[in-house]
Amino acid sequence: MEWIGWLSLAIVVGALIFLGISAFQTFKSMKPKMDHLKTAQQRIQTETDKIKTETDELKVHQEHIMADVDHAKQAVTLTVNEAKQLPQNAKFLAKTAAASRKNNKMAKA
Hints:
Blueprint: H1 2-108
């Protein structure tokens, strides 16, 4: 009966050794795959950072374009408003000039 205990202990020890060897081989075979995944992750992160930088640059460019459009819009609006005022200003100028001539004729007379 004693030999059954020793045999069981030897089987358990053998199973533990086999488990350790299998785990080590699995780890060893997975290491290149893990390294490949890390490299892929780094490439993706680099590309993501590059895209983010380009996005930020495009936002700045878009803001400049929007500012230029707003400036042009204000310039056109100001020009149109001044053009609308032109007939009224011409009438005022004509009235002022007529009144000035009338006053000059009265002063000379």
